[in-house]
Each structure stands twice: as structure tokens, then as C-alpha cells.
Known about the structure:
Distance between the termini of chain A: 27 Å
Number of domains of chain A: 1
Number of helices of chain A: 17
Largest interface: A-B, 28 and 27 residues
Strand content of chain A: 5-15%
Order of helices and strands of chain B: HHHHEHEHEHEHEH
Strand order of the largest sheet of chain B: 2-1-3-4-5
Order of helices and strands of chain A: EEEHEHHEHEHHEHHHHEEHHHHHHH
Helix content of chain A: 40-55%
CATH architecture of chain A: Alpha-Beta Barrel
Strand order of the largest sheet of chain A: 7-6-5-4-3-9-8
Number of strands of chain A: 9
Radius of gyration of chain A: 21 Å
Oligomer: heterodimer
Strand content of chain B: 5-15%
CATH class of chain A: Alpha Beta
Structural class of chain A: alpha/beta
CATH superfamily of the largest domain in chain B: Cobalamin-binding domain
CATH class of the largest domain in chain B: Alpha Beta
Distance between the termini of chain B: 33 Å
Helix content of chain B: 55-70%
Number of helices of chain B: 9
Radius of gyration of chain B: 18 Å
Shape of chain A: globular
Amino acid sequence: MAKTFDKIAYNSLNDFVYGCAPNPVKCKNGMVIGGGEVYPELNFTLPPMELTAATMPEVKEIYTEMINGVLKRAHELYAPGIVVEFEMLPEMTLVPEWGIEVTSILHNAMAEFEAKHGMKTALRATPGDVREFKRPPMMRSGEIFDNVLKTFEGSAKAGADFLAIETTGGKEIHDDALVNADLTKVIFALGIMGCRDMKFIWEHIVRIANENGSIASGDTACGFANTAMVLAHKGFIPNVFAAVVRVASVARGLAAYEAGAVGPNKDCGYEGVYVKAIAGTPIAMEGKSAAGAHLSAVGNVAAAVCDLWSNESITPVRLLSDIGPVVGIEQLIYDCRLMNLAKKKGYGITFRDLLAESDSPFDPQAYVLRPDVAFEISKELVKAKTPFLRTKAGAKLAIDAIRKAVDTKEVFIAEREKNWLDIMDSQVAAIPDDEEKFWHEIKGELDLSTFIPSEYGLK
Amino acid sequence: MDLQQLSLYVQKGNGAKVKEMVSEGLAQKVSPSEILNAGLIEAMAVIGEKFKNNEIYVPEMLMAAKAMNQGMQVLEPVLTATGVKPIGKAVIGTVKGDLHDIGKNLVRMMLKGAGIEMYDLGIDVSAQAFLDKAKEVGADMICLSALLTTTMPYMDSVIKEFEKAGVRGQYKFMIGGAPVSEAYAKSINADCYADDAVVAVDVAKKLLAQ
């Protein structure tokens, strides 16, 4: 059901804390996400190997070994419940039967374990957005698109509790905009292409979830703001640019909830902090315990308002204690145990603020994830009336907040980053508020061979 | 002709001035090779160093590369006519099953800036396509990119395809991407691994000089 958000979901910053959300999500087995407790969310992937029909028997064996190890370790550590994410590799969506088959294996193992040991489990199935396999991509029709929907439907029928995806609509322009640090094109890609694509595909996912007893959970700006994060960490683009892209991606993330998704948002979508503040839906986040997957400057602050705490992904590499996913679940369980106990003893807000303040001075990307910063920006963000205007407003609000924090020495940025705040400011100021006018203005500067405008409702 | 000034215009990303100076230089009968090496390629080497030293970001590097390209539009026909050859030819692509191309595009841009003639096959590229293109253009080097643990083994398949065709020895293979390492490069008989686009330039130059 379509929704609009014209105010934030909270009255007080003190309620904006990890483990509870104004609109918690209840699974079929009674497990509640955002109902008070943070649960671990474990994700795993294959080791270096080719994925073909011939290797599928081995693939299934590997997933079986991983899920059994994870469940056993979670039970040994008295986890009250866990979520497992199955993030499909491209081939598993291109050939839906493969993704559905592995979903079924994971669901059955989890259901069996739950019946035997009483530990609550929930499965998130995340098909890959393989629409970009064809370039320029067909976003709304064709065999590849049909296979994406088929994988969602099959996964829901195979027992997935949550349906999620990392959509890529707008990436055709966004990649190039990022490496050129061109905020104007970033806003076009996120605010017009991305938001329109999200509305389109999430209406399909919500329908499929509703028809098949699954929950339409959420998306992530992984291909956008996380790409910016990685480029910034490599020194390719300024950290302040990546931080602004993060807040500019909020409207895109919200579009899933406007289309009827209910959460939990996907783990690598760090913009989920804003989604939670505005939509009140639970979110998964990842940080220090996802270090096996990637570096980030937000290891602690990412946990401040999370409802699921994730490891992002790990291969079954053999470590001294066990394979990677088993090690991953152990780390997550201890993180969650500490957060939950702190809150139970009345230190939830203190713990949240420690998580935030231990990271936020060192990187603007961490600063914009502070609950108080996200809370204040969200209040202003919802005043913008359309996803595009919210995208533009998000960028401007982030620039202003970072500039202020730099002046008051709340956040450190390198000297060479400072002029980028001015560059970005002038780029945003030059963008018109009218969506159609913006499209016609920018059209001549875009590589129109990389995308099909009509796939985004653009003429 | 002030080649140092030409280099500075490239570094500052002033394409119009670069184009103008290259035209003037050719009119003054300055050697096209000298314009290329001491003006354009030298500028990109400085840019690469500045990037390595954290003095500039990729957008500045791209602006310089675009300025160099504007100069090359004027210079390239003269280089071809006078028989000046690039320092090498390379085919680049993201291997089959993989769609990630930001890193690959940066490597292509930097290698082009270093004077290597680049042929970009894009994403999801089959072993046969790499082989066909390499033969067609008379490449010296093949650059393979992958970002997934399930697509990196395809780099091995590409090299094996060249071995099967009996032409492995004619080409140098450089690989890169998040899950890839020096050890992996050795294990699949690639010639080298490059950690990022700037390192790729140094590595490629060494390989092509062999």
C-alpha cells in the first residue's frame, strides 16, 4: 500500500535507539524485529569457484555446511534468535531455479533446527538485481526482469521470511558521476532515476510478498553510497563527497517504504538510520563485525540504532576456530548480547551515544550517521514534497551539517577536502526544483547510450 | 614550443589550451613524439604521482586525462602518418558473469594516459571475446578485472583459452579486482597483479618494456 512520509516517526531522540522501532516487524514464527532486542543477521557467500549447472551440487553442499555450522554455533551461544541472509550471486537470479533451490535448503535447515532446539530463525532472500547484465539495461520488462520477479516469487514460496534486493536503477549514470565527483549527476541518478525505479520494482516486490506470505523488507544504496564510501577510502574522491551522497540516497531508500515495504532495511544500507527515523521501520546495519567483508569508517556508529546487526558477508574460509560464517555469527552474537544487556540495565541511550561518538569525529561519513544528526536532518528532509526534492534537500542538509561540524571541530576533515563543501554547495544550488526542467537541462551532458530514458518514465 | 607549459595545461585539465598548443607545436614542426612524450604523457605521469601522494583526487585525474585526449585528437593522425607507435596495445574487460566496471574504467583511463592504446570490451566478457580482440588488434597485453569470488576463477579460464589457442606466450596478462591478489595471479599464470589504477600504470610499463 502506498504511503507518504511528511513527518518523522519519533517525538523524542531518546526513543531513537537500537533494538526497537515504532513499527516493528513480526515473522510467521513470532520473532519480532525492532521489538526491543537486537538480533544478529548472518550473511555468507561462496568461496572462489565458478557457478554453473555442473558445480551446483557442490554449491548446495557448501551452503548446507555453512548454515548447519552457523545454527549450531548460535545455539551453543544461547542466541535467542538469528536472521540469515541469502544474498544471491548473479547466476542464482539469472537461473531462478538455482537461487530458489538454495533458499529452500537454507529454510529447511533453519526450520528443522528451530523445531528441534526452539531457537527462533528468519531467512532473508535477496535476489541479485541482474537487470544491468544487458546494457543499456531493460529495467521494466524482458527475460532478465522476469527472472528477477520469478526468483522473488520462488524464494517466497520456498519459505523466505523477508524479501530484499540491492537495486541498481540509476547506476548507469551514478558510477561515472561518482568518479567525477559530480554531485549534479549524482542527484539526477539517485533522485530521479533511482527513486522512480525503486517505486516501480518495490510495488512488484510488495505484491509478490503479500501474495506468498513473505515480508517485503528493504533495499540499500550499496551500488551508490557504498561505492562512494569505497572510492573515498581509497582516496579516489573526498570523504565529504561520500558523506553527502549517503544522505542524498535517503529518499531513494524511502521509496521502497512508500511502495509498501515494511523492513527490516538491508544491512549495507547505512542510510537506513534516516529510513528508521522517518518511516519508523526496523533496520539491519553492519560495522566493525563486517570487517571481514570491507573496511568502513562507521564500525561503531552503524550499530547505534540498528535492529539487526550484520556481518555483511563472508566466505567459508577455514580459520583456526572454524569456517568464516561460524566465526561471524559468534562475533555478532556477542555484539548483540552486550547491546541488549546495556539497554536492559537502562544504559541504552548511553551505549548508543558511545557507539556514535567513538566514530563520529574521525570521518564525515560517520558524522552523518550519528543518531542526533540523522534525527535533525530527517526532520527537515520530510518537508520536501517529492523524492527528487528530498534527494536534493538531503545533499544540501548534509553539506550544511558537515560544514557546521567542521567549524565547531566536531568532525575532522583533511584540508584538501574543505573546498569540496563549496564546490558541492554551488552544484546543488544550480539544480532547479522542477524535475522535468532538470531532466531537460542535464540531458545534453549525459551519456544517453548507457540508459534508456523511457525505462525511467523520462521522455 | 614550451612543452612544460603544455604539461601544465594537461595537469590543470584545460583541454582547449592543450588542443591549441598541440596544433601550434605541430605547425612549428616540433616532433610529434616529443609533444606526446614530453608534453602529454609526462603530464599524466606527474598527475599519477600527485595522486599517489594524496595531493589530488580521481576527478582531477580524469580532468587531466580528458585534456590529454583533446590534445591526442590533434596529435593522433600525425603520429599514425609518421609511423610513431604507442608503447603498447592492451585489451581490457571485466570477465564473464561480472558487471563491475568502475575500477576497470579507471585502469583503462590511466593506461591510456600512459600512452598505451586501449581496447575496452566492457563487462561480462567471454574468454573467446578477449582472444578474438587480442588477435584482431595485435595486442601486447590483456587486462582482466573481477569483483566477485565466483567470477575471479574465470580469469583462469581466459588465460587457459589463450593457452589452448597456442598464443599465451604472445601476451602479458595483468589482473585486478577486490578478491584478487598477487598470489592468485601467480596461481593462474598471470604475469602480474595491480592493486589500483595508478599501480597498474607502473606495472604495465614494466611489463611492456620486457
